[in-house]
Write a structure and sequence with these properties.
With 369 residues, this protein is mainly α. It is built from 20 helices and no strands. α4 crosses α6 and α8 (109-121) runs antiparallel to α10. It is globular. The protein starts with a helix and ends with a helix.
Length: 369
């Protein structure tokens, strides 16, 4: 993803869509600092074992395939809302795959597909649940009340849809407990993760100065010690590159010819459809960046509609969300047969995309009254 973002920057500069002197002014330092803090919080959470302990504590108790699927959907969604959709999959998917060893013949493809969908459509409950939420919360001028007021009915509707899919995607069968090693929670990184997440949310909601979580993240890195070297700040670099590359793409003749806003309009329904469709081609994070300027110039409600559109757009094609690719890679690693997974993924993801768009259109129509 970083290579693609950097290639887009080079293209924007070479094609003359962006002048080199413009580059510093295109960076949103506030958003980039929030991503920096979030990444440090996630690293503290991973190092501490706190969320891995919580995931296993819940899932190890189930004794049937469908109960595991329902629990995994909810646990993935809650974890994603706290520590991003990508990290949630890195925690949940490997553990659910451990059931294959304890229950020979248990097919986990459908289960993993549901977990991927949950990370996308339930984790978006919070601003920190995925990158496009954090960006749109800042750019859209949301308050905590307006954001959660918009997202809660959407997430509840999608949660009901996911749970309703469980009997159709996962076959009923008993399951023994998987053989897993005990997880030791490291207290200092765990506390650091929780404090950073709390400070991040306070800063996002304008209840704390933006510098506070940034300073706290430096102390958290000190707590990690040598483990801090494992912290992957690629997401910060990706977003920094996207701020430049996407702005160049937005100015290109190709985008003007295929501009979804021109095709579907600036009504709330237009932003829902534009966000969902554009995400299928360029992923939902670049789609949010591409359409945000139009939403800023549109009537009230445009950012909420765009939020719905790009979150719905995480379903659909494999590239619609980075979480799709991460979940697929975790499942497919070392497997010779991939057709069954992609067949289930295509059916479930396409169905959820259609349902999410319909739900989004209904919500923006209702809220407009």
């Amino acid at each position: 993803m970083l290579a693609g973002a950097l290639a887009l920057v080079v293209l924007a500069l070479v094609a003359g869509w962006v002048r080199p002197a413009e580059v510093p002014g295109l960076f949103d330092l506030h958003v980039l600092s929030l991503f920096f803090v979030l990444i440090v919080a996630v690293e503290c959470a991973k190092t501490s074992g706190l969320f891995a302990f919580g995931v296993r504590a819940v899932l190890v108790r189930v004794r049937s395939a469908r109960a595991l699927a329902a629990a995994a959907v909810l646990v993935t969604g809650v974890t994603a809302a706290l520590v991003t959709n990508d990290v949630a999959l890195l925690l949940v998917v490997p553990f659910t795959l451990a059931f294959e060893e304890s229950a020979p013949g248990f097919e986990t493809a459908g289960l993993v597909v549901l977990e991927i969908a949950s990370a996308n459509v339930l984790g978006c409950l919070t601003p920190t649940g995925n990158p496009q939420n954090l960006f749109l919360f800042v750019r859209g001028g949301f308050t905590p009340g307006s954001f959660f007021g918009a997202q809660t009915p959407w997430v509840l509707g999608m949660a009901a849809a996911l749970l309703a899919l469980v009997p159709f995607v996962v076959r009923a069968r008993p399951l023994p407990a998987p053989a897993v090693l005990a997880i030791r929670v490291a207290p200092f990184p765990a506390v650091s993760a929780l404090v950073l997440i709390a400070l991040e949310l306070l800063a996002i909601f304008h209840d704390a100065p933006p510098a506070v979580p940034g300073i706290a993240s430096l102390f958290a890195l000190a707590v990690l010690g040598r483990d801090a070297r494992r912290t992957d700040f690629t997401l910060v670099a990706v977003f920094a590159a996207l701020f430049v590359g996407v702005e160049g793409l937005r100015r290109s003749a190709l985008f003007h010819a295929l501009d979804p806003i021109r095709l579907f309009g600036t009504s709330p329904a237009g932003f829902v459809i534009s966000g969902a469709l554009l995400s299928q081609a360029v992923s939902n994070v670049p789609a949010a960046l591409l359409l945000a300027p139009a939403a800023a110039a549109a009537p009230a409600g445009a950012f909420t509609a765009l939020l719905y559109g790009v979150n719905a757009g995480g379903c659909g094609t494999p590239i619609a969300s980075l979480a799709n690719l991460i979940g697929a890679r975790l499942y497919l690693a070392g497997r010779s047969s991939r057709r069954s997974f992609w067949r289930i993924f295509a059916a479930v993801s396409a169905g959820l995309l259609a349902l999410a768009v319909v739900l989004s259109l209904a919500l923006v129509k209702y809220s407009a009254r």
